[in-house]
Design brief:
alpha/beta, TIM Barrel, 8-stranded parallel β-sheet, 41% helix, 18% strand, globular, binds pyridoxal-5'-phosphate
Length: 236
Amino acid sequence: MKAAVSMEMIQKQLEQVEQRIRNACARSGRKREEVRIIAVTKYVDTETIGEILKTGITHIGENRVQDALPKYERYKEQATWHFIGHLQTNKVKDIVGRFDVIHSLDRLSLAKEIEKRAAALGIVVPCFVQINIAGEETKFGLNPTDVLAFVKETSNMKHIRIAGLMTMAPIVEHPEEARPVFRELRAWQKRLQDLRLPNVTAEELSMGMSGDFEVAVEEGATFVRLGSVLVKPEGT
Ligand SMILES: *Cc1c(COP(=O)(O)O)cnc(C)c1O
């Protein structure tokens, strides 16, 4: 059973997060509006999403299909839904046509399945290419050496728009150590945009989590994915 968190609690955390984002924007000469918060709701129950939405947050992120679907069904019209976790090919049918954005496009078999399902529905799905910048064995995401070929191939799929890039930085002791990872994702954005491929806009950078979001903002994040710093259930 997942925990419930009250709106008051979330509001309090959000105010602190807001201040930290503002400071990071100020340090790096960015506008606050360039950065959007995705509340990652995997630690909390369905009702808590209602509490989150009351604070004015409109972007919700879930990483597991099974947990995500009931939450989506309950609040679908009230939020923009981001699928941020590893997506199995056989679950694509549950996500395409429901979630607004997929952050974890990381292999050709997945792209083909998304393309197939989106074509059947007559929609274009904005996807972020997930890159395993640090090359960690334990993480999903494309190996950097495979990114170029993957994006070129995927750019031919008319029902997928590569709207951004996503990465997860390694867990480090000091957030500063994650900076090169975020900087490299931004470098990839430029490389891919310079190719001027069809269906590849890559305007979004989904990077930064509770432990490292300020550094990610300084390095150009347009979406930060925040779980524990925002909606940490009591006693965890
Ligand atoms: C859980 C999760 C997050 C949020 O993690 P926190 O450290 O709790 O902020 C962000 N992105 C992905 C892909 C996740 O699975």
